[in-house]
């Protein structure tokens, strides 16, 4: 009996193995078409007829001399014939976009596609970049592109139908998230007819004019259309009929009609498709300039339109950085898990670091007064900070971006399991908050956030909610990457860049004539012999001795100078004229009381319209590098340069501060906060062409004395749409000098003078330390720390 059972088991196993082997053999037999089909069959069992396609839609490679890449494409496809890919994306483009939009798409999102991306253009198209594209014979770039669209589908069906599971028709101004698209399509059966995209029925004006039935629709082309290989197989024999029987001028409508008629399916009606295949209606100009953080954009599979090709790189960098942040967050969480396990096991590891610590707003405990980390008050529009000379400032773009990104990550964590819980919490606004930056441990936030609570399950409800969020953003470890490329390799890489990337990142070569352009210094002067002598010595070092192309125009007000001062100034100028030539320096005597506007206007009139003017004061020290920045940052008819100079504090105040001890030496190139501040609100130092100065009306010579003339001119440039370029210039230092404010000045000028005088006294921290030393002011002992 036992033996009989054993024999039955053996027979059962042998039969099973034989059946599996026979099934695999039969499947392979059918796939390779070992059994020929009768000509009358279209599809029977495992037999598929090799249907012929005799239409007038033809495809051929572009010009052989200009398009070696087209041959390479065919070779690539032949090599991949034995292995079935996942997704083939055909991108419709045109001749004028092959070197711009097509290049940007190929170098960004196309690399995330699990499969192949090929660009389809009109007959005779060429490109100087190595991108895969096909030139469609007898197809031009006329709009609407019905013939181009159907020709592309034919090419895809003829060459790759059995090589890919999915096919996509895309525009060159769309962005496709390859990883999310693959994740989505893996959940759909590609062996059945599928026609996926954002469903459309036409605008209100087009209702009834598109020859669509009450239940008919089409997939909108701009956001992309996805076909399963079975759908493409069904419509392939009928593409000629479809292109020869058009009802409208909309190519996406006609593709939808063809699919509905011969594959028997409409475009997906699911409401989710409007978000997955995302059309940007929020921004008039497109390109997702201000909407990258929107929830719909984050979850979208495709994004359209992106009219500026350079924004393809920006969007790609944005989503790539988000992936990097997610991986770093995962790394930090793993470090924390290791830390938790070590604590449970009572084990101490030498490799434990700060990344294993749980987030806390009290991570750092100071032991000295100077180590105390302050908190900055933030709102959606402004920042109040102890770190700024002007405590309250507008919200900078980078700070707003950091705050928005923090809020976005917070809401993502809050809503991670919202669908299962039947509720969502939407962000409305940050009412106020506090931010603390620890250079070693990261950034801490305390935010008062306004939210909207939405309940979907059971009894629905919407309610406004305010919550405090305590957040800590940990810094990751510093990474150093050595560039393995040689200079020649870098040059070769630059030559392969998109012209838009090259323009923004590399720029064009600087003309040598621009670097040799003559800079005309215009210096208003009244007295100040010692300061003028120091200024001329500096000018000699950077201009006269080195034979720089420059010219000096000194405008001297004799009425406001003592006779011996005038004589001394003329003597100083005469020495330099004798040594270097009289044509390089000139002194212009001005009548009446000192007026800076009048001095600059008089100096400018000594120059021609195409001369580069540099309006400067005798209290400024320059370096040689600053001259080239003046030349490069000033562009005639386009841009004015207003450098932000470093202004030194009063050295007497600095040295009398007992808390500084021996650290009161004033170094010329010391840009530390205790030594001075950057004049962000100063417009007196400026570089411009005389033609631009005259174009906006010049200086207002009715303004007497010091100040206000610079702000007036700045407003004129802004109102005349001339670009104002402002940047910190480490080659310009405003040396401290006592400021005397004349009580006879116009009230607004006098107020500006008093403010400047107070700003130059010392930093807020230094003044606070001085006040702490004044026992008679505080009437108490200074606490020891």
UniProtKB/TrEMBL annotation:
EC number: 2.4.1.-
Any one Gene Ontology molecular-function term assigned to this protein's record: glucuronosyl-N-acetylgalactosaminyl-proteoglycan 4-beta-N-acetylgalactosaminyltransferase activity
A Pfam family it matches: CHGN
Transmembrane segments: 12-29
Keywords recorded for this protein, A-Z: Glycoprotein, Golgi apparatus, Membrane, Signal-anchor, Transferase, Transmembrane, Transmembrane helix
Location of the protein in the cell: Golgi apparatus, Golgi stack membrane
Annotated Gene Ontology cellular component terms: Golgi cisterna membrane
Membrane topology: Single-pass type II membrane protein
InterPro entries listed in its UniProt record: Chond_GalNAc (IPR008428), CS_glycosyltransferase (IPR051227), Nucleotide-diphossugar_trans (IPR029044)
Similarity comment: Belongs to the chondroitin N-acetylgalactosaminyltransferase family.
PANTHER family: CHONDROITIN SYNTHASE, HEXOSYLTRANSFERASE
Protein name in UniProt: Hexosyltransferase
UniProt organism field: Sinonovacula constricta
């Amino acid at each position: 009996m036992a033996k009989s059972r054993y024999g039955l088991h053996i027979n059962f196993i042998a039969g099973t193995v034989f059946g599996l082997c026979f099934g695999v053999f039969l499947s392979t037999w059918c796939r390779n078409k070992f059994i020929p089909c009768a000509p009358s069959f279209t599809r029977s069992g495992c037999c598929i007829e090799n249907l012929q396609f005799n239409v007038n839609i033809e495809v051929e490679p572009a010009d052989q001399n200009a398009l070696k890449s087209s041959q390479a494409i065919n070779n690539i496809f032949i090599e991949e014939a034995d292995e079935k890919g996942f997704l083939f994306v055909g991108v419709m483009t045109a001749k004028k976009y092959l070197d711009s939009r097509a290049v940007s798409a190929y170098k960004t999102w196309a690399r995330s596609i699990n499969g192949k991306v090929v660009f389809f253009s009109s007959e005779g198209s060429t490109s100087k970049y190595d991108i895969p594209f096909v030139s469609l014979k007898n197809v031009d770039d006329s709009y609407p592109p019905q013939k181009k669209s159907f020709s592309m589908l034919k090419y895809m069906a003829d060459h790759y139908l059995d090589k890919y599971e999915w096919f996509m028709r895309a525009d060159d101004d769309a962005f496709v998230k390859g990883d999310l698209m693959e994740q989505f399509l893996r959940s759909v059966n590609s062996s059945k007819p599928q026609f996926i995209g954002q469903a459309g029925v036409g605008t209100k004006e087009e209702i009834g004019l598109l020859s669509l039935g009450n239940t008919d629709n089409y997939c909108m082309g701009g956001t992309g259309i996805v076909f399963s290989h079975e759908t493409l197989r069904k419509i392939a024999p009928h593409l000629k009929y479809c292109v020869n029987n058009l009802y409208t001028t909309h190519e996406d409508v006609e593709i939808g009609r063809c699919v509905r008629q011969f594959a028997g399916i409409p475009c997906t009606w699911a409401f989710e498709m409007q978000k997955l295949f995302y059309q940007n209606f929020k921004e008039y100009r497109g390109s997702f300039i201000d909407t990258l953080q929107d929830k719909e954009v984050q979850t979208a599979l495709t994004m359209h339109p992106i009219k500026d090709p350079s924004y393809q790189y920006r969007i790609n960098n944005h989503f790539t950085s988000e992936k990097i942040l997610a991986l770093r967050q995962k790394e930090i969480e793993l470090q924390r898990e290791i830390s938790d396990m070590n604590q449970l096991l009572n084990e101490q590891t030498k490799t434990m670091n700060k990344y294993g610590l749980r987030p806390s707003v009290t991570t750092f405990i100071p032991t000295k007064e100077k180590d105390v980390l302050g908190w900055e008050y933030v709102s959606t529009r402004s920042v109040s900070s102890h770190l700024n000379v002007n405590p309250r400032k507008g919200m900078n773009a980078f700070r707003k971006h950091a705050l928005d990104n923090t809020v976005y990550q917070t809401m993502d964590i809050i809503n991670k399991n919202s669908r299962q819980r039947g509720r969502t919490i939407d962000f409305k606004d940050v009412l106020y908050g506090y931010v603390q930056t620890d250079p070693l441990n990261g950034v801490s936030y305390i935010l008062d956030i306004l939210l909207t609570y939405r309940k979907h399950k059971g009894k629905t409800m919407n309610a406004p909610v305010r919550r405090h969020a305590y957040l800590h953003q940990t810094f990751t470890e510093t990474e150093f990457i050595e560039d393995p490329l040689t200079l020649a390799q870098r040059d070769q890489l630059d030559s392969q860049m998109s012209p838009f990337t090259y323009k923004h990142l590399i720029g064009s070569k600087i003309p040598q004539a621009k670097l040799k352009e003559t800079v005309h210094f215009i210096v208003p002067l009244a007295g100040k012999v010692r300061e003028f002598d120091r200024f001329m010595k500096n000018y000699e070092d950077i201009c006269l001795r080195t034979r720089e192309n420059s010219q000096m125009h000194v405008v001297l007000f004799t009425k406001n100078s003592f006779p011996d001062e005038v004589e001394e100034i003329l003597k100083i100028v005469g020495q330099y004229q004798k040594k270097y030539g009289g044509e390089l320096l000139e002194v212009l005597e001005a009548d009446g009381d000192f007026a800076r506007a009048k001095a600059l206007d008089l100096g400018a009139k000594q120059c021609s319209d195409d001369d580069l003017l540099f309006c400067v004061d005798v209290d400024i020290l320059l370096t040689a590098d600053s001259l080239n920045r003046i030349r490069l940052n000033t562009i005639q008819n386009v841009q004015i340069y207003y450098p932000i100079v470093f202004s030194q504090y009063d050295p007497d105040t600095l040295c009398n501060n007992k808390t500084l001890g021996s650290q009161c030496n004033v170094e010329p190139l010391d840009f530390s906060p205790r030594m001075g501040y950057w004049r962000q609100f100063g417009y007196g130092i400026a570089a411009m062409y005389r033609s631009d100065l005259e174009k906006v009306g010049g200086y207002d010579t009715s303004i007497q004395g010091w100040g206000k003339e610079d702000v007036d001119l700045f407003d004129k440039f802004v109102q005349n749409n001339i670009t104002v370029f402002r940047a910190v210039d480490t080659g310009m230092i405003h040396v401290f000098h006592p400021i005397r404010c004349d009580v006879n000045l116009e009230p607004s000028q006098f107020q500006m003078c008093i403010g400047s005088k107070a700003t130059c006294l010392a930093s807020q921290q230094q003044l606070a330390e001085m006040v702490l030393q004044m026992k008679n002011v505080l009437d108490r002992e200074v606490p020891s720390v």
